[in-house]
Input
Amino acid sequence: MSIAVHKKENKEIAYLRCNTYASVPSLKLCTPHSNNLEKVTEIVLETVKARCREYLKEEKFESLAKKTKNQFEKRRNSIQNEIKILERKVKGLNEKIDRIYEDKISGKITEIDFERIYKKNLEMRENMEKQIEQLKNSNTEEKQVDLKKIVKEFVKMKI
Output
């Protein structure tokens, strides 16, 4: 088969043309025939859609969608728990920084020790705050999707 394009009423129409007849028409190995490419494509697509609807079960995809949604919820809850834990640790570090400052003022620790401990705690707090921000961003980036709608569209082949 080869594709031939004809103009009809200012519109191009593609046809599938028989190569056997087109190559040597004088031998009369075949008859001159062709098929409208758009119609053939439509018939093939409808056949594929019909077979898919015949073999695909919507319930199977719905259960898969529910499982995926449950995994998404678990992940979101895990991230929220991790954020809460980190926020408590940051609060604890802030309290620790306040205590070491009071110890420095009261003379319990030296200026050098204060600087060392203070810098170490500030660095830890900054790292935790960055982690919290990253977790919050990753949690908001994930979208909720109507999985049931997607499954129905797939089974109905709405592309």
